[in-house]
Amino acid sequence: MSSPSPRGGSQLEDPSGPDDDRGAGTTTLTRYQPPSLAASVHASLPRWSGAAAAALGALVAAALLAVADVHVALAVVVGAVVGIAAFVVAARAVEGARAATDRFVTALVTVAFVVALLPLVSVVWTTVSRGLARFDVAYWTQSMSGIIGEGGGAYHAIMGTLIVTGIATVISVPIGTMTAIYLVEYGGDNRLSRVVTFLVDVMTGIPSIVAGLFSLALFTLLFGPGLRIGVMGSIALCVLMIPIVVRAVEEMLRIVPARLRESSYALGVPKWRTIVKVVLPTAASGIASGVVLAVARVMGETAPLLVTVGLTSATNFNPLEGRMPVLPVFAYYQIKTPGIPPGAFIDRAWTAALVLILFVMALNVGARVLARALAPKTR
Known about the structure:
By secondary structure, the protein is an all-alpha fold. The chain has two domains: about 50-135, no CATH class; about 140-375, MetI-like fold (Orthogonal Bundle), CATH 1.10.3720.10. It has helices at about 35-40, 50-65, 70-95, 95-130, 135-140, 155-185, 190-205, 210-225, 230-255, 260-265, 270-280, 285-300, 305, 325-335, 340-375; strands at about 5, 10, 30. A three-stranded antiparallel β-sheet has the order 1-2-3, with no helix packed on it. Helix 3 runs antiparallel to helix 4 (about 95-130).
């Protein structure tokens, strides 16, 4: 006979019996039986349960829109609540209370992500669909000089945007970089460093129109009222760009390992040469990425340029003389004061917005490529 095993199996006795000479000195054999799979595997919802709950919510929202006269937003909210409730109830019935709570929080995070993504998708879709109406060769090669109704382009505004932003970059990057080097490498925790850090924090949060008014007041004091030139817009953008560059460069310099500096000092290298040859090259990828993102941040500013560069329909390549058109101001006035037919002006404004988005996207992609190219090699 077999007797129960302490591990859940059974013991088989030697068939020869205890009195048989052939079985003398032999041991019993144990056959292991694994526990049942049903006891070790917990029940769980299928993978498609989340999609099914979302589909249920969509059906409820569609039914509300078809049957009742409700707003689209209200229908979407009701559908989301119904879908999440069904998902959580099914999880509680199958998986238990703890798993249902986890499913509920996951569903809330997913819904929050979708809600945050909807405005971005809506803006991009609207801008692309409306901006493609005038996204042609003429828009990139012609100005608005002599154009009253249809036709023309934004060549003058595109060139003005590149010139104004380029001057602002040339001024802001050295100032912001050297300020960050002082804060990290020289200032330490002295009073001047604390004051500069406080001012940088304040400048980061000032409204953009304040930067424009500052530039206007500065040039009015120096050259008199009524002046509108491209470099005024560049100075206004510098006020917005410098704190961004300072913060970006400062963070990159702080993550450079201290042992690199100490190794250089141990070899007798001066501090300024250590910064130039060791610290800056190590942080070059992050610095380049931060600078490019700062340029993208100020390229689409409208308020400071409205009061500094003015408006003109002709192409101007001289930032020190005459009004200079830029894309944000060009789009603003195309919408604000449309002519006849108004559709042509509105199409030009939407295409200007699309061009600005393409510029910003190109700068972001360029920042990633540049950061990867300048990243220190590990081998």
